Amino acid sequence: VHQSKMDFFCKLGYGKQDICKVLESLGQEALEDDVLKELIRMGSKPQALENQAQPSQLKLVARGSCSSAPGLKWLGEDGRDSSDSLRPIVIDGSNVAMSHGNKEVFSCWGIQLAVDWFRERGHTYIKVFVPLWRKEPPRQDSPIADQHILEELEKQSILVYTPSRKVKGKRVVCYDDRYIVKVAYERDGVIVSNDHYRDLQNENPEWKWFIEQRLLMYSFVSDRFMPPDDPLGRHGPTLSNFLSKKPVLPEKKWQPCPYGKKCTYGNKCKFYHPERQHQAQLSVADELRAKTKVPFALGKEEQRCQCSR
């Protein structure tokens, strides 16, 4: 039991010394939820977050030099560079599997489809949380399809089992939703689920904002995983900006004026006029005033010249 708890929290990125201290204070029979709360209370953070919080060392580069030394980068759990522009992905495995199985079968193939979709987009940090009892043989009241996929994803360090055990013949299951929201919040990532986590929103105001802004819902069209193109609504960011750490603002596109050169609005026209790029866009009334002022000024100069003679 001690080794299984050590392995579980080590996968989440916590140090072995902090885990041992908590287990000694709470006891070996402590629930994983209590251990996680104690780690958070102690101020312990996953190693990836601690490395990210350390200030990077800046180097002076000679003026005009084109070559620059690469800065310090922290590596993810899979050893690859995790400092890309894409957010970490945390998938609610039970929600995705049951959705793909039409809420009747726990379809592990649905989890694989979701993981492959984010892999193809270039995401390097992908975690799937599934209760530990899903490793047990399927029963009639809880059928499971393609159960071998869970083993393959666990070997790839993508799938994480939330702990569960049996006490006097009854299964005691830890709340996997808390793991999902907690890891996504610490990693500043995205939660993939159709669940709204209302109980956790009421539990923590910071989690409430995070769930509202970082929850990515989805649909399955046959065997195709399809998130919406507008995750936060019609007036929200696009899917690419939603999944990126640094959103790219769209360029402002000017609509050409439907009247073209016949437009009489001048500088008050809100449309684009390619023929007026290098001209002062005056209205018709202003142009007429400018034309009438020029001959009037010339006539005054001629009168002054005649008087001086």
Share of residues in strands: 5-15%
Overall tally of domains: 3
CATH class of the largest domain: Alpha Beta
Radius of gyration: 31 Å
Largest sheet: 5 strands, parallel
Mean pLDDT over all positions: 77
Which structural class best describes the helix and strand composition?
A: alpha/beta
How is this structure best summarized?
This protein is α/β, with parallel strands linked by helices.
List keywords for this structure.
single chain; Znf_CCCH; 11 strands; 3 domains; Rossmann fold; metal-binding; two-stranded parallel sheet; magnesium
Tell me what you see in this structure:
Residues 251-276 form the C3H1-type domain. The structure is a single chain. This protein has 309 residues and is an alpha/beta fold. It has 3 domains: 1-42; 82-243, Rossmann fold (3-Layer(aba) Sandwich); 260-292, no CATH class. It is built from 12 helices and 11 strands. The chain has helices spanning 2-11, 16-26, 32-41, 47-53, 93-100, 108-121, 148-155, 176-187, 198-203, 205-214, 239-242, 284-308; strands spanning 89-92, 106-107, 126-131, 144-145, 159-162, 164-167, 170-173, 190-192, 215-216, 219-221, 224-226. The strands form 4 sheets. A 5-stranded parallel sheet has the order 5-3-1-8-9, sandwiched between helices. It has a two-stranded parallel ribbon with strand order 2-4. A hairpin with a 2-residue loop joins strand 6 and strand 7 (170-173). Helix 5 packs across helix 6. The N and C termini lie far apart (115 Å). Mean pLDDT is 77; it is low at 52-83.
